[in-house]
Amino acid sequence: MITLFDxxxxxxxxxxxxxxPVSAPKKGRRWLTLGxxxxxxxxxxxxxxxxxxVVAVMVWRSLDFVDTEAFDxxxxxxxxxxxxxxREAGDSGAPVLLRRPSxxxxxxxxxGALLGLGLxxxxxxxxxxxxxxxxSGTPKAGY
Length: 143
Prior knowledge:
This protein is mainly alpha-helical. The chain has a domain at 35-132. The protein is 48% helix and 6% strand. The protein has helices spanning 36-85, 96-99, 101-115, and strands at 119-122, 128-132. It has a two-stranded antiparallel ribbon. A hairpin with a 5-residue loop joins strand 1 (119-122) and strand 2 (128-132). The longest helix has 50 residues, at 36-85. The radius of gyration is 41 Å and the shape is rod-shaped. The N and C termini lie far apart (111 Å).
């Protein structure tokens, strides 16, 4: 009998025999093997660490913003008070409030009471010209 086509295919060879279980990890690489529990815990720890870092950066930036705004507010208040003190010049060219220390002291005390802040006015040499002690309680002008 003559066969035109061989449809039987190649002979299958059995797999080689191995020593021990097939899926057993090698002793040197056991730390690389993570189960599903380890993978989930690692993912959770990564997300938690990123969240903590983002919150820390946001808190740090908001505190920096508060400091900057407080400094800007104090600078604006000092500029407006300096303009008010030097606004009216007398005959000698010196501002009236600077020529009369009692009027300057009264003005600073009124401003301190209005704002609920302690204020000190100093000249260019750092000498105190007038001062108002800080008041307890809430400021009246919304500062």
